[in-house]
Amino acid sequence: MGISRWELYPNPDPNMGPLVQQLATHHIVSAVQKSGGTQLKLVMSFPNYGQAIFKPMKQERDEETNFNLYYFSDFERHNAEIAAFHLDRILGYRRIPPVVGRLVDVVKDIKDVTTDHKLARTFFSSPVGNTCFYGQCSYYCSTEHAVCGRPTALEGSVALMLPDLSLAIRRTWRSPWRRSYSRSKLAKWETEPDYCSTVKKTAPYDKGTRLVDVVDLAILDFLMSNMDRHHYETFEKFGNDTFLLHLDNGRAFGRHSKDEPSILAPLRQCCRIRRSTWLRLRLLALPHFRLSDVMRESLGRDPLSVATTPLLAEPHLAALDRRLTVVLRAVNRCLEEKGGKPSNVESNET
Ligand SMILES: Nc1ncnc2c1ncn2[C@@H]1O[C@H](COP(=O)(O)OP(=O)(O)OP(=O)(O)O)[C@@H](O)[C@H]1O
Ligand SMILES: [Mn+2]
């Protein structure tokens, strides 16, 4: 109900506490497969008719993605969906629907309450007696890629469902900096140094805030190393003067020991950034507001973080600080080119 032209929820939002609490605890009355998309996910319903999207844990929280895996064949991570929501909020964007971690019972909360026969048929008991299921989808929905409870407990992410499409139609846009999704092909932006000058002249990037919105999104993606941003969505009702929804962050936070500079291409090639974003990034580079510390504290409030393993492993938090410095350097390089006054990012005290 708090959705505006420029953000999904206000700040502060008195509803956020109770909402997150409900997502984490309300009784699940139904769970069916969500159609669309490539990986297994469920739509869960609550007694008050509220709904949420559940993505199961497929990879241990502290596991690093295999370096030989391409970005388009990576698994989705439930903790990345949760961490992305926190990061987006800390950056001051508020463009990701609230996501919480939740431990569900695959029998009581899914198998026993589902009306989805195709889903129900995929439940089985593993050799060690855990209850597993795999669903139907175009990737990773097979016995080999089943998700399993221990023996029935399964953790996952629960994202608040956006207003139904009958109430709020969304428009899907192809990202101008979309990757090729091929092992051998390069995208235009990877070979044309002057790519941004073309984008800048093309609607809707030629007017309003769309270009700096794409740069905002690129910064978020670079910080969490998400290469899978092929599309973004907007609410049709608000036309072109509106914020971009940052949905589908499951492939973020896969690697902490490596940065992916190409994700920053929109910033590097266009040399544009929102002032408020730049100020926020500089704030988060100060010792007292260090991004990793703010993230650690924020994630600590998620229900799943009471467990012994934190939602984001320490190396991922450290990577956030390192990547933030990279972003600020890129902004400074732009300022120097344009003859503006750079800020001192080496000594963070300024
Ligand atoms: N919180 C939400 N509320 C409503 N719809 C959503 C929400 N999050 C995602 N969706 C919709 O569901 C679709 C699929 O979700 P998502 O992109 O997370 O899954 P995916 O399997 O990774 O899809 P893809 O393979 O297309 O990237 C999205 O394109 C989006 O339109
Ligand atoms: Mn996806």
TrEMBL record:
Location within or outside the cell: Golgi apparatus
GO terms of biological process kind: enamel mineralization
Chief localisation class: Golgi
UniProt: Mn(2+) binding residues: 76, 248
GO MF: ATP binding; metal ion binding; phosphotransferase activity, alcohol group as acceptor
Required cofactor(s): Mn(2+)
Catalytic residues as annotated in Swiss-Prot or TrEMBL: 228
Region forming the signal peptide: none
Domain FAM20 C-terminal: 123-339
Residue numbers binding ATP: 39, 55, 76, 159-162, 233, 248
Keywords for this protein: ATP-binding, Disulfide bond, Glycoprotein, Golgi apparatus, Manganese, Metal-binding, Nucleotide-binding
Recorded GO CC terms: Golgi apparatus
Family membership: Belongs to the FAM20 family.
Record's protein name: Family with sequence similarity 20 member C, like
Organism field: Gadus morhua (Atlantic cod)
